[in-house]
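> example.struct
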């Protein structure tokens, strides 16, 4: 993937000021598609932890130009042939065959056909209540690109997800989620730049083993014999979370998993993840998921029935 500095390309292909795109929030500005295939997830996937929401493939023709402002999903885009200009955070890249891009939620971007005048692309958009936490955990807090020497695994997952969305039922949600997580993990494993430092791994392991205890930045720093500010900077740099935010995210993810299993009371779940007060747990859960644990449990029961 090449960084483009050519002012003529920027002027001709994209807005001179990204703010002007606000007239068209989240919309394609100039549709010029070919060979378009598109499948979407059913409502059964709503409020699921991680899932492929849309799987598609298409040719971008010569005059195509699109923009998305602060999308709520992760965009995974693989270029099979041709090329594509991508404008993201005031930088312009040229994505070529073999390039796989990940553009995280809330990251505005525009894309246009490259100099060849066409681009064949296979895309997966992912959503989910735990999407942001999973991306942070794997190191995908920022936009990312990698060149795939052997893309067969991506083609296989793309095809399997497409079939699940096209023919699947509500009980296929777990397969969808597993395939998405496997894909993200596989991509992370291919990149040396995403491997976290040993200190971060130790910190994450300690947090994971002590979610039910009195966890804090001070406690973690004392255990690892490190300065609190050093740990906070480390978490911010690699996970885009402070230590406090990361602890909360892991507790909330654990709570959500336990609620979905329907094996324990809400009071028990609160105690297991470190909340002595049920009220404090409910307040934190509502901040994170926009509903109380009780409301979430009831909604899950209604979905099952």
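> example.seq
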């Amino acid at each position: 993937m090449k960084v483009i500095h050519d002012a003529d390309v920027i002027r001709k292909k994209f807005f001179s000021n990204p703010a002007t795109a606000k007239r068209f929030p989240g919309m394609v500005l100039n549709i010029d598609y070919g060979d378009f295939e598109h499948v979407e997830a059913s409502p059964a996937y709503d409020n699921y932890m991680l899932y492929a929401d849309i799987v598609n493939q298409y040719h971008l023709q010569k005059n195509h130009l699109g923009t998305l402002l602060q999308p709520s999903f992760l965009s995974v885009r693989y270029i099979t042939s041709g090329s594509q200009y991508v404008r993201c955070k005031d930088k312009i890249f040229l994505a070529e065959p073999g390039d796989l891009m990940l553009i995280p939620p809330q990251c505005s971007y525009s894309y246009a056909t490259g100099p060849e005048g066409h681009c064949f692309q296979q895309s997966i958009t992912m959503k989910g209540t735990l999407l942001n936490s999973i991306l942070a955990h794997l190191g995908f807090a920022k936009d990312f690109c990698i060149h795939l020497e052997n893309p067969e695994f991506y083609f296989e997952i793309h095809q399997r997800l497409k079939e699940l969305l096209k023919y699947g039922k509500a009980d296929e949600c777990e397969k969808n989620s597993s395939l998405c997580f496997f894909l993200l993990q596989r991509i992370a494993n291919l990149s040396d730049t995403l491997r976290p430092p040993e200190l971060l791994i130790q910190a994450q392991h300690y947090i994971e083993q002590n979610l039910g205890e009195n966890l804090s930045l001070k406690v973690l720093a004392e255990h690892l014999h490190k300065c609190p500010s050093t740990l906070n900077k480390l978490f911010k740099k690699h996970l885009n979370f402070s230590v406090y935010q990361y602890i909360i995210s892991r507790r909330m993810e654990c709570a959500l998993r336990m609620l979905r299993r329907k094996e324990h009371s809400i009071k028990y779940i609160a105690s297991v993840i470190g909340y002595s007060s049920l009220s404090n747990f409910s307040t934190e859960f509502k901040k994170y998921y926009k509903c109380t644990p009780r409301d979430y449990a009831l909604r899950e029961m209604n979905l099952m029935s």
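> remarks
The two ends are 48 Å apart (CA to CA).
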